[in-house]
Target: N-formylglutamate amidohydrolase
Amino acid sequence: MVKLSILEIIERIENEEIFHAVVDDYSFSIKIDDYVPYACAAINNGHHFSQNLWDNCLLNNQERWYEEDPSTGQMIAGLPITLIALDSRFEYDLNRHPQDAIYETALGKNVWRKPLNSDQHDRSIRKHDNFYKVVLTLMVKLEELFGSTVFYDLHSYNYKRWDRVVPVFNIGTSNVDKEKYGTAITQWQDILDGMSLPIDQKVVCKINDVFEGNGYFSRYVTANSLNSLVLTTHVAKIYCNETSGKIYPEVVHSIQDLFKYYIKAHAHRFYDRHDAY
Model:
């Protein structure tokens, strides 16, 4: 993996180059092993928190981790095109509009002892903007090459905070053209529903049960693409102890192995169906 500037990353995508890179400010990584009609993103995976913000943050390391999406980057690591956030959503949330990307409150608590100064604020928003410059470049290139693209937008959530039974997987579709992409949504649900995982509970996938997929990533891709589908997918934190932070590697590896096969299969079925029209 090489360290590249945003402009260098954009140039490599435009030239259809194969590469693995981390952006030079270490805010996210990108991998392109092949140009295919699908890509995977884990935009709340990151835990890095800039050192110049530590003393000003009222939340400790564990409190921040609790609301992040740990290991979601590893779950998609076997796919050919990945975008994986490395910075914590508590520095700036890539799934929020730039105007709201820096939290004031979280977990019912204030996040900052005092408001960020202009340099700190601008630095974080610049990283947010740069990420979406790369998303746009990638989306345009894949639609140029294939006509249609599927983005698998992976998140996790704390299922124990709910006072009812909630699904292991949830697909949010509020920004999706359900008439146009209904078959693809149903097929993705069928794949996730009943997926064999080394856990002591039934694996169920629901649509819009705990989240409706109204994050900024989904809205941005949908608004700026000609023919791209975003499948915002949440996995319950059955792969870790969501309170202590202990990861269960056998569950993470199982999801990673299954995603490597099933995402590819689903994406190619989507592309074949679209290409038939």
Summary: The two ends are 39 Å apart (CA to CA).
